[in-house]
Design goal:
The protein is an all-alpha fold. The protein has 15 helices and 2 strands. Among the domains are: 102 residues; 125 residues, no CATH class. Helix 3 runs parallel beside helix 5. The longest helix is centred in the N-terminal third of the chain and has 43 residues.
Length: 351
């Protein structure tokens, strides 16, 4: 550094020190002034002062960083609009996929027959809104096409696959139906939805049975019979009884069917009979009418038993609690004689 530059550097350094000291003094005076003002303010005025200073500080900060903040505001606005557009498109896509799925369902349950048979119901005058098909082949073909066309989320696709499997089974395409049922069994939805998993399990077992794979069918029905859900457990027991009867094993078939009836339970008087219990009783009546009658006796509801006891008490002039066990058994035998089960052939079922 030259002799001329040295005094200048010293002056600049001294000036910097003086400026820093002045700034510190100003900051200290401002703090003391604010403290003095605050001490002389009422509680409400102190709150107003704090709010005013906070607002001023926020305004100062926004003015200083306005260029950056405006880009943040624009980015948030664009993101919000984009999110709304995306949600709208997803909603429309899911709605379209659901419509396609229901189109397959409506085709599957469509009416079959001539146009003359498609008029309003003679007794009620109500028109049947279901789609009309000339025959079952046309109905199943339309349902298959619509189930295959269904898209959307993985859950909707899985439900469409389950519907497609049932249509393929009804159409006699058992190998294709088995592949579809197995695809549903391996889906993510089947892992979380017990109804989907168990229905696909039953369908796969039925397809195995139709293909002649009796052992694989039995394995599927046993797994179904071990379900924690009473309806599906009864369904699995019924299928095992049906296969046992078809193999000529009458006693094991009777045991399976009785267990299915017990598992299905007795519905309340105001509800419709359980399909599984009804089918099991019909097949049991085919195998052993006496066993079916005994099953009917043991499945009377508590309300029915109470009515029978009250009727007997009225005849005897006593209270229901006075009815003996022998008298109650006689009344039950009379009831079962009045409504004997009619032997029918074993019904076929498909999910």
């Amino acid at each position: 550094m030259s002799e001329e530059q040295a005094p200048k550097a010293i002056r600049d350094r001294n000036q910097t020190v003086r400026d820093e000291a002045a700034q510190k003094r100003k900051t200290r005076r401002d703090a003391e002034r604010r403290a003095a003002v605050t001490r002389n303010l009422a509680p409400g005025e102190m709150v107003d002062d704090a709010l005013a200073r906070s607002t001023q500080a926020a305004t100062t900060w926004l003015k200083r960083h306005f260029n950056k903040m405006q880009w943040v505001i624009v980015a948030v606005a664009v993101g919000g609009i984009g999110s709304q557009i995306y949600r709208s498109r997803v909603h429309k896509s899911e709605a379209k996929a659901t419509d396609a799925l229901m189109a397959g369902v409506f085709a599957e349950i469509g009416r079959v027959g001539t146009e003359d048979e498609s008029g309003p119901d003679p007794s009620t005058g109500i028109e049947d809104p279901r789609q009309h098909f000339a025959d079952d082949a046309a109905r199943l073909k339309a349902a298959e096409e619509r189930f295959r066309a269904a898209g959307g989320s993985p859950s909707v696709k899985t439900l469409a696959e389950l519907g497609l499997a049932g249509v393929l089974f009804d159409a006699g395409k058992h190998k294709d139906a088995l592949a579809a049922y197995q695809a549903v069994q391996g889906s993510a939805l089947a892992k979380t939805d017990a109804d989907v998993r168990l229905r696909s399990l039953e369908g796969a077992a039925l397809a195995q049975e139709a293909l002649g794979n009796k052992e694989a069918a039995q394995k599927g029905f046993r797994e179904l019979g071990n379900s924690d859900i009473a309806y599906f457990a009864a369904l699995g027991l019924y299928h095992q009884g049906r296969l046992a009867f078809a193999a000529g094993e009458r006693e094991p078939a009777k045991d399976f069917l009785k267990k299915a009836i017990d598992k299905a339970g007795t519905p309340p008087p105001e509800s419709a009979p359980s399909y599984i219990a009804h089918a099991a009783k019909e097949l049991l009546a085919t195998i052993d009418p006496n066993a079916a009658a005994a099953s009917a006796k043991t499945t009377l509801s508590a309300e029915q038993l109470q009515v029978l006891m009250q009727q007997a008490a009225q005849k005897k002039g006593a209270s229901p609690s006075d009815i003996s066990k022998e008298k109650l058994d006689e009344m039950l035998r009379q009831v079962t004689k009045q409504t004997p089960p009619a032997p029918v052939s074993a019904p076929s079922s498909a999910p």
